[in-house]
Amino acid sequence: MNKKPEWTPANAGKEYATSVVKGKESQHDGMPGSRQNKIRKAAARRKLSIDDYVQGVLNHDRTILAQTITLIESNSEKHFEKGQEVLRQLLPYTGKSLRIGITGVPGAGKSSFIEALGCQLMSENYNLAVLAVDPSSSLSKGSVLGDKTRMEMLSRHQNCFIRPSPSGGKLGGVTRKTRETTLICEAAGFDVIFIETVGVGQNEITVRSMVDFFLLLKIAGAGDELQGIKKGVIELADAILINKADGDNLKRAEIARRDFANALHYLKSPTNGWTPEVLTCSAVTGDGIYSGWEMIKRFESIVRGSGFFEQRRNQQNLRWVHDLVSERLLNEFYANPRIKALLPQLEKDVINGKIPPTQAAWQLLHGLE
Ligand SMILES: Nc1nc2c(ncn2[C@@H]2O[C@H](COP(=O)(O)OP(=O)(O)OP(=O)(O)O)[C@@H](O)[C@H]2O)c(=O)[nH]1
Ligand SMILES: [Mg+2]
Q1: pTM here?
Q2: Are residues 356 and 251 located together in one domain of the fold?
Q3: Which of 137, 168, 234, 326 is the least buried, fewest Cβ under 10 Å from its Cβ?
């Protein structure tokens, strides 16, 4: 039986083509199906009740966890209400993880870094969820699985859950459901959550607004040391790791480290009570990976101790509320038949210089009246 993975978009073409072999019906011990098994089968038919979803997530059932995320990601109105109720019931079990955002240009080594660090965390019995929000598929069309292979060891580990979220065609767009997905993973017992995203500008700001620690991965010798770097992005980072500090690159990585450290000197830290650090590492040799983790733990203990951790999360929640309201209003506005009727002509008029953009905007805004 050929079946697409549940995270592929409904209208996806061949770029997601893959086949998943049907799993065993009975449990791994060979015993006949239990209640969990029935729930799984129901999940396959998408007939789970709200309670099935909630209990499945709380029982760390990966199949149901994946189904719940799919439910949350769904854009249909029917799924929306069900998803929100599931989320509401899971809320008391959320918030306990350390949320870490990892960004960097394509090829900086984000996935390799996560694989290297993740495997170390596995040996310390952490439960790790990786939300690859913007897998390279959006750039190269079709390496979602390639991305999983780059995290090959990790993806086979039972304490790790990897969820590539297709970015819905929008290059670099952090999916708007990532915050909700984070909460669901927390309810499922994951205590560290990595959010991997390609750095293409707007993404970094969005991810910064949903994580506790924001890590910028850089490579030396890519020609972007300092001159090409957008100050804005560096200002968001709690740490910069110069990756690929191995072989011939070692010396350049060290120079880059010093340059970045100097540059950071003049910038304001995004986190009260914490001075951003610059370290080198290699996801291939493993050098510096653990020092990176120790730094993150140090960060956590300082920022929790000072109360800024809680304060930032509260701020993030408020921002979330306002983001949702803006998004909803905007969608409703443009979905309104009157606006839909007005828009094409107004756009033409602006392009032809018949009316100024300001007037077009006013006419649209008054179009509802
Ligand atoms: N030499 C060396 N190569 C590395 C290192 N980390 C990653 N690479 C290589 O760099 C390439 C890109 O690595 P990825 O981990 O896929 O990079 P990424 O940032 O996740 O890329 P996208 O998901 O496409 O944005 C791969 O060929 C890796 O093997 C490193 O520390 N040293
Ligand atoms: Mg990657």
Answers
A1: 0.81
A2: no
A3: 326
- Cβ(218) to ligand 1 under 6 A? no
Taking every pair of C-alpha atoms in the chain, what is the biggest distance, in angstroms?
Answer: 74
In-domain check, residue 19: no
CATH number at residue 283: 3.40.50.300
Q: Is 103 in the pocket of ligand 1 (CB under 6 A)?
A: no
Structure tokens at 357: 């953009």
Both 49 and 109 in one domain: the answer is: no
Give the other-Cβ count within 10 Å of 363's Cβ. 15
For residue 65, count CB atoms less than 10 angstroms from its CB and return exposed for 0-12, middle for 13-18, buried for 19 or more.
buried
Per residue in 272-320, pLDDT tens? 999 999 999 999 999 999 999 999 999 999 999 999 999 999 999 999 8
Domain range enclosing 348: 336-368
DSSP H/E element including 139: helix 137-140
Please work out whether the CB of residue 283 comes within 6 Å of at least one atom of ligand 1: yes
> Given the structure tokens 């914490």, which residue do they identify?
274
Ligand 2 center from residue 244 Cα (angstroms): 14
Same domain as 364, residue 256 = no
Question: Could you report the per-residue pLDDT of 41-56, keeping only the tens digit for each?
Answer: 665 665 899 999 999 9
For residue 111, how far is its CA from the centre of ligand 2 (angstroms)? 4
Same-domain check for residues 61 and 155: no
Do 193 and 94 contact (CB within 8 A), yes or no? no
CA angle, residues 110, 111, 117, in degrees to nearest 5: 85
Q: How far is CA 26 from CA 40, 48, 349, in A?
A: 11, 19, 64
Whether ligand 1 lies within 6 angstroms of the CB of 112 is answered as: yes
Provide the number of structural domains found in the chain: 3
Cα(112) to ligand 1 centroid in Å equals: 5
Nearest CA to ligand 1 atom 4: 244
